[in-house]
Amino acid sequence: MLRPYVPLLVLLALSVVNAIFMVVLSTVLSPGGATKVKSAPYESGMTPLGNPRERFSVKFYVVAILFIVFDVETIFLLPWAVSARRLGWAGFAAAGIFIFILTVGLIYEWKKGALEWD
Amino acid sequence: MSFFAALGRPEVLDLARQTHYFWALLPEIVLTLGAMLVLIVDVIHKGDRSEPSRGSIPVLTLAVLAATALANTALFGLRDVSANGMVAVDGFRTFTNFVYLVAAALCIAISMGYLERRGIMKGEFHALVLFATLGMMLMGGSRDLIMTFIGLEVMSVPIYVLVGFDRMDPRSSEASLKYFLLGAFSSGFFLYGIALVFGAVGSTNLTYIAETLGTGTDHGHERLLMAGMALTLVGLGFKVAAIPFHMWTPDAYDGAPTPVTALMSTGVKAAAFAAFVRIFAVAFADAGAQWVPVVWWLAAVTMVGANLVALTQGSVKRMLAYSSIAHAGYLLVALLSGGDTGKAAFLFYILAYTVMTAGAFGIVIANSRDGEERVTLEDYAGLGLEKPWLGAAFSIFLLSLAGFPLTAGFLGKLYILRAAVEGGQAQLAVILVLASLVSYFYYLRVIVVMYMRPARSEGWHAGAGLPLAARTAVLAACVVVVAMFFAGAVPMRWAEQSALSLWRQPAPVAASPAPASLFR
Amino acid sequence: MLLLQEAAVHATSAAAGQAGESFAAFAPWLILALPLLGFVLNGLLSITAARRALPALPPVGDPHWDAHHEPSEQEHHAHGDDAHPAAHADDHGAHGHDAHGHGPKPATHTLPSFIAPGVLIAAFAVAVVNFLRMLAAHPETAWVHEYWSWMPVNDPTGALRVGAAIQLDQLSMLMTLVITGVGSLIHVFSVGYMKEDPGYPRYMAYLNLFVFFMLTLVLGASYPLMFVGWEGVGLCSYLLIGFWFKERANADAGKKAFIVNRIGDFGFLIAMFLLFANLGTLNFAEVMERAPAQMAFGGAVVTAVCLFFFLGAAGKSAQIPLYVWLPDAMAGPTPVSALIHAATMVTAGVYLVARSATLFTMAPVASLVVALVGTATAIFAASIGLKQWDIKKILAYSTVSQLGFMFAAVGMGAYVAGVFHLMTHAFFKACLFLGSGAVIHAMHEALHHTHSDMDAQDVRNMGGLRRYLPVTFWTMGIATLAIAGVPPFAGFFSKDEITGAAWDGAHGQLPLAAGLAKVGIDGTLWFGLIWGALSIAAFMTAFYMGRMMIYTFFGQNRTGEEERKHLHEGSWTLTLPLVVLALASTFGGFLNVEREVPIVRWFDFGQGEALHRWLHPVLAGADQVAEANGIAGAAVEPSAVPIAVAILLGLGGLALAWTMLSRRALRTAAEEPAYANGVERVLYHKYYVDELYDRVVVRTVGWLSRLQAGFDRYVVDGLVDFGGKMSEWLGVALGRFQTGQVNTYAFAILIGVTLVLYAFVHT
């Protein structure tokens, strides 16, 4: 009964073996232990300046989300445009609704001032 | 009905024709438009971004909910003849839609005044509540697992935001993050479960799944289906807060702004339960032998565990959170009881539970102050004497939650018990009774403290109260709780008819689940 | 009562003439509704009186109030218990009675004087109307009307249907007439006796309520409805015994009556359960119809039913061993003693047995037990009565003894004789009690004037009262002759019928004797014993009644010089009922004269045996049972012997008392030495039964209840507390999982997923 899953099991086993193999191999092959210099974030000799976990302005995120929204819109609308004739008026209406909702979102963002950097 | 017929609503829907979705989704469409309207009106009206929203926003929100309720009546008497529509068109959906709308309306009503006090009076709150309600309606009314998932996400994401709506309050943010992380975790399980079920049965359509399982044909993917059912159960169990998937509940309920807590413990739970009924009691009905024992244990453990932990809570809000978990257990019993009586009892109870829980949270809000939540037991001492109306209302809600006669909670529990005994779940009925017995202690303790202990200090309760609209809502909830006892036959008949209209009547589930076999 | 007698005589001829005419009841519900209305009105008045802050009226129920505030034109709280004379004396000594004047009495204390007797008289009138109609029709079957369905239980195995139904037949009609008739007189008496009491409206409310329940008891058409009345009269009895509840002894007496009656109620209930289990009904008509067919003659079931019913009857009617409450019940106001504890309530047990005649006929053994217990009670109580000093105690034991006579009668199957004696006893005992009330009233008032601390109820302190209370003397004298069994007074005929039945039984001529023979018991010896014992009891009765009369009314007055001046008869409300009852005691006996019997034949009235004919339809069921089982009595050979013996004993007892006491110089209670003789002391102390009960029952129960209390406190409460604590500990333990860490939560979910997955895949 479980026969169809045998390849899955084999894959699982292989991945585990592979992981172990890689870790062991890198331990065996790596030269020497860790020194202070080696442990530093950048080995090029530069001392890191400031906190690496510096907080970005929240505006970045807002803009990023806006970008994603329109990105998704593109992803949806391109396939629709390709087959627009076949989808007919129903498809047109659906796309219209989609754009309408996004437009409302845009108006909201706009009025909220998400598009102003300052 | 004739009103919508005059507008051109067909008598019989065929969701194979896409234009018919307009009628099938009319309440959802109205709600979507209304939510967007609230969002836009709020931002346009505000001169300065930092100033609080106007007082008209909640009113507009309530109007949107009312319009949705009106649109919901368009579903009365409708029938769908298609084989694989995405939404269910039946009385069950109409009934549960009203429950979500009641929950949302009560949430908005009791939030009046509260948001201003906490400094979070923003139009987004109301829009998010509406969007969450939309998600509930989609989730509870879906006829397809994919649609259920979309509804779940549409519901959950606004709730995540709402829980953390008070950004300045670390507890609110913490609760939001916890809920979001664990919610995402459980959504993953749910989605995975859907995938496995699809793999086993070949469709995500609930009708199709039910028929496939009903024919009893060996589809050769028994274990796949089992695993799929198990993971779906986990996802739903998380949303309804059944033990052991309840861990997020107390923290999220406690940290969230109280109106959001009210919405989470009523509307969200109701939607998750509606989906639960549609997926398990209907689609998987013929696989009852597999899932009934598991859900049996979930119900038993949830009832017992939640009531025991609730005993030790010193915070009334947290106690209500555990009480909400315990009620999930009771509702699971209704679900397990199977048959029309079980589903009717479920509908009746979810309505009663929504009203009384939202009302109880309304009192919690009434007792809170600017920037300070008064939720410990000591904070309630003397409330009954100094604010007799608040005390009386809270007593009624608590007694109803405990299942005291003369309240809706009593009748609801009675219906569940009857359904359980008729459905061969007598053991669960006994556990339910014993668990409720324990619950009496912590509900009555609050009443005792309210009436028999002196207030912390002179004038301690001076500022307690609600604005007029919220007061009206709480009073109405009170009246409903009592009226549902005296006129319980009316909602019960409605619930029975709604349960009858579920689009596939399942075969009665196995009489006794033989729980002992679970860990054999 | 004359009316009753004449009408009953008339009835037989009417019945013979026009038997076909149907009986149409005239609003019998009014008989019940009127006393209830009286209760409601008086109750409202009593609440008003208690609510209103009357400066002159202290809290309701204060027995000493009058002594403080009222210049006692009429001394009214005549309840003086012999245990508490000193308390009164103190009050009298401490406060003068001359300090206050009369004010107009508030309406709450005047209206009951009209309401309470009014409703009773109206109810009596309705009863009379119904009686006359029944007389004309003389229906063979009972008139039953269900007003509404009271207890409908639809059970597949057998439906219990109990309606709020009234049953009017010859027996309940007779009882209703006695209750409303005698009740009316006692209500009138109460007006004179109690109207100065601060709790007067409350008293009248209770009294009306009692009558309502008593009528429910006799008019109910089923055992459960009868039980309602049964419990109701018990409640009223309790309330009225403890009417002056400020004094602990009174309250204790009330409690004693209540608790002892519970034992009897237990029997009643068990009997009802048994009946329902075996017959599937509790309505009288159906029970009497089904019982002969569905239960074996002399079988265990019917015997058990009858014995349990008798247990109930013994509690209510003060039979051995449950009689102890009745003498204590004299703590209540005297009219209460007359109405409840002599004329009506205590005869409910007799009514129960007569009502269940069919059942008792089917159970000869149980009947014999009833007869024997009744006989034993009769002689036992009579012997105690010989040596009592308290006038009410004497009458109380006399009542117990007479009730024994009635039970002996109904036990022997002489139901008519039992009911007959019930009726005549209601007349003469009510007369005696009211008379004693008048005496106490007068004594109390006289003693009040001089603040004497003498006991107003002790017959030794009286003497020679016939000069001061002539009406009371003559009426009580007639009643005494009646109870002693002197012809032609009422008691002679009824008591003679009872002893006559025993005599017949001893000669094997009673149906019961044949019935006993059928189950293998020779009854003749027992009946002979019963006859002998009853005769001795009758002799004792005559003696102690004579003794009481002599001590009270004859010889030298012993109240003292000053007090003597204040001895006088009460108002007409006190004397009128006495006169009426004395007349009834005189002529009531002719109702059932047996014409065939020698000596009595001289008093030939109409066709004779009117009561027999009157009650015949009620007892037809019992007769049928007897006939069907071949035990119907043979034709009774009339014998003059028992009648002659009865007359001799009655006269002899009185004569003995006279010869022993009339010439002796009687002394007051203070001068009289305590009983030296062992027998006398035992009798005076009532055979020490109360002490015995106290040692054996009360202390055991007390000990057991303390044990039980300890068990409850430590074991039961401990378990409950433990359960609560366990729940809390479990809650705390489970709450520990609530760490607040998201990873813990996620881990918990993961465990849940694993368990669920495992469970699914495994099943």
How is this structure best described in words?
The complex is a heterotrimer of chains A (118), B (520) and C (763). By secondary structure, chain A is an all-alpha fold. Chain A has helices at 6-29, 36-39, 58-82, 84-112. In chain A, 69% of the residues lie in helices and 0% in strands. In chain A, helix 3 runs antiparallel to helix 4. The N and C termini of chain A lie far apart (64 Å). The mean pLDDT of chain A is 82. Chain B is mainly α. Chain B is built from 22 helices and two strands. Chain B has a two-stranded parallel sheet. Chain C has a two-stranded antiparallel sheet with strand order 1-2. The longest helix of chain C has 47 residues, at 689-735. Chain C has 29 helices and two strands. The chains are: A mainly alpha (118), B mainly alpha (520), C mainly alpha (763). Chains in contact: A-B, B-C. Chain B binds chain C through residues 177-178, 181-182, 185-186, 189, 223, 226-227, 229-231, 233-234, 237-238, 244-245, 247-248, 250-251, 289-291, 293-294, 297, 305, 308-313, 438, 441, 517-520, and chain C through 724, 727-728, 730-732, 734-735, 737-738, 740, 742, 744-746, 748-749, 751-753, 755-757, 759-763.
Give the oligomeric state: heterotrimer
Ends apart, CA distance between termini of chain B: 55 Å
What's the count of strands of chain A?
A: 0
Radius of gyration of chain A: 26 Å
Based on CA inertia axes, which overall geometry of chain A fits? Answer: flat
Number of domains of chain B: 1
Q: Report the order of strands and helices of chain B.
A: HEHHHEHHHHHHHHHHHHHHHHHH
Uncertain stretches of chain A? none
Question: Largest chain-chain contact?
Answer: B-C, 42 and 28 residues
Helix content bin of chain A: 55-70%
